[in-house]
Write a structure and sequence with these properties.
Oligomer: single chain
Number of helices: 12
Largest sheet: 8 strands, mixed
Number of domains: 2
Distance between the termini: 43 Å
Shape: globular
Strand order of the largest sheet: 7-14-13-9-10-11-12-8
Helix content: 40-55%
């Protein structure tokens, strides 16, 4: 069995744990008979930026078929679930709007379980529109709910991080590495332990590991990590999927962490693994947007269409091939990024 990277996120440990807990606590509440056995994801974080790997026995197709069967059994399943999701999402939306720290440890723990519960509805809203045979009315209902919660993880994580920093001011930004179990038991790690997690940690099957590489960890549990092979040699162009048509040219700026956004300059081309609401000021300044990840309904694609910026998504390795300061020409009509001058190669055209 092998694992492949599915996406990248920069979130606190608590928010990353939500989706691990969801398959045990959240989904069974709305999907009777769930879960069949599914392999847990491997989350490998360096400097707070987490790569999420899923197994070749992927849970997504299993869950999608499980939902499809429920829809076939009950024609009212979609409106009933979306009504349930509307109620579960409301308390979270209130906290997102305020974007303020919660006042106590107990409230933060309660908020965590609200998010676990609501994340099951988030999954429903993403899978239902792509299921064959779903009525146009039900599809639009699910898409509407998905639109309300597009930045679910980022907005929830922001409230959690603010709350952790308020609760544990001596730990500063390192409080983001406190786990749910540690928060509940009040067994807060030392600063030294949290700094070690900032260097690198792996979260797998409800357990946290440090001081071990991803490859060594994978060997230890008897699986293979398959990384996408990066192109060798000097590339003249990169291809991806058109999210918003348009033409642009300029200097690239690579952003892999939120704290790098402060240095973004008007007119540069933003290149990132993915984007979230935190990236909006830079996206508005950018002449164009390029991402490694994402589909046509990802955050970068939606925002690019709203603000009218040329955007190419799903390039897979733009952040690895390009360097800050490279000159590129972007033809988003065709999904092509031409490298006109690379800092790595004096022979660029």
């Amino acid at each position: 069995m092998y694992y492949e990277k599915t996406y990248t996120r920069e979130n606190c440990l608590l928010s990353l744990q939500i989706f691990e807990e969801e398959r045990i606590e959240g989904l069974p509440e709305i999907l009777s008979g769930w879960p069949p056995h599914t392999d847990p994801a491997i989350r490998s974080a360096t400097g707070g930026v987490c790569e999420i790997y899923y197994s070749s026995n992927r849970a997504f197709p299993i869950l999608k078929e499980f939902i499809a069967e429920k829809i076939r059994e009950n024609k009212s399943f979609v409106p009933e679930i979306m009504e349930w999701y509307d109620g579960a999402l409301g308390p979270l939306e209130d906290s997102w709007a305020k974007s303020m720290p919660l006042g106590s440890r107990e409230r933060l723990v309660g908020y965590y379980y609200l998010a676990v519960r609501a994340s099951a509805g988030l999954d429903m809203s993403y899978f239902i529109p792509d299921i064959e045979g779903v009525s146009s009315k039900d599809r639009e209902l699910a898409i509407g709910m998905r639109g309300r919660s597009g930045d679910f993880l980022e907005r929830t994580g922001r409230v959690m991080e603010l709350s952790l920093e308020r609760l544990y001011p001596a730990l500063g930004r390192y409080s983001k590495y406190i786990s749910k179990g540690e928060l509940e038991s009040e067994a807060i790690p030392t600063m030294e332990e949290l700094i070690e997690r900032d260097r690198h940690y792996i979260f797998y099957n409800h357990r946290l590991y440090t001081k071990i590489s991803l490859e060594d960890f994978a060997k230890g549990i008897g699986v293979e990590i398959r990384r996408e092979k990066e192109p060798s040699g000097t590339l003249s162009e990169i291809r991806g999927q058109t999210a918003m048509k348009g033409i642009a040219a300029g200097k690239v700026r690579i952003i892999t962490r939120k704290d790098e956004l402060r240095g973004f300059i008007e007119g540069e081309i933003l290149v990132a693994p993915m984007t979230t609401a935190d990236y909006l000021p830079a996206m508005q300044k950018a002449s164009a947007i390029i991402t490694d990840e994402g589909g046509i309904t990802c955050h970068a694609a939606i925002v690019a269409r709203e603000i009218g910026k040329p955007c190419i998504i799903g390039t897979r390795f733009a952040t690895k091939v390009l360097k800050t300061g490279d000159l590129v020409e972007l033809d988003a009509d065709k999904g092509i990024i031409s490298i006109t001058h690379s800092k790595q190669s004096p022979h660029s055209k």
